[in-house]
Fold this protein.
Amino acid sequence: MNSPTRRQFLHAVPLATMATPLAAKATPTIAARSLAESPRKFSLGLVTYNVASTWDLPTILKVCKSVGISPVELRTTHAHKVEPTLSSSERKEVRKRFADSGVQFWGCGSTCDFHHTDRAQVEKQIEICKRFIELVADLDGTGVKVRPNGLPRGVEPARTLAQIGKALIECGKAASNAGVEIWVEVHGQGTQEPANMATIMKECGHPSVSITWNSNPTDVKNGSVAASFELLKPWIKSCHINDLTNDSSGKYPYRELFRLLREINYQRTTLIEVGRVWKDVDAGTEFLRYYKALWNELSRG
């Protein structure tokens, strides 16, 4: 995924100020309209994928505090090294670092997936998910992000969707016992289609399992995300956002998405997840400041 440059952000902020919503086709109820026009109740957070993938944990926390970004989702395999392999004392240290920084730990972004045709691999992924659940609970986080990662060739899609949903029940039980949540990222070839994600969630049906809206191109139908949002809104408990300049370019209606989040009284977070790696911390910090400025404009009531 291409990330916006500083120049694109400088160009996009005034465009966003002047622009009308890309797609405001649905007529909200009076109550929904009132919420849509009210100040947002959700925050701007960060997924370490990929802006902060090369930053250690102290750097991530320092930058987020400086820019005013919170919470943080720590994606597995990144330089922060917050993984299920941490010892008890190391977990206490990570928890203290977050507490001292004033930046909230949102959870772990795992790569656990459950679409495999090999049942042993599915069981392995469930066990890995349980290790992340334990880690998040120890760090006083909210949840673990998992994902479907596509529809295997030669397998009836309905069978795969049901399999994923049933595997998520096991994850949901473990999460419930630990006092955390499971967020299923809208992800993967075929599985990221909103109708298929809705099927997965219905097959699961566990109250501790919800979704991470992922701001995919497949959300957009006839220039609007309203229909996709309507399908998935009962389960939205987390949200990833990427290149906000896609709003002014007509590729993704972020202003509309933020309005829809206000209409359902979403009070959680929208997490920055862009593809570019910023090895230069100062440049990455500047990028996040511009990103926040554009987010403030697009998401305000």
About this structure: The chain has one domain: 29-299. The domain at 29-299 is CATH 3.20.20.150 (TIM Barrel). Residues 112 and 125 are 5 Å apart (CA to CA). Confidence is low (pLDDT under 50) at residues 9-26.
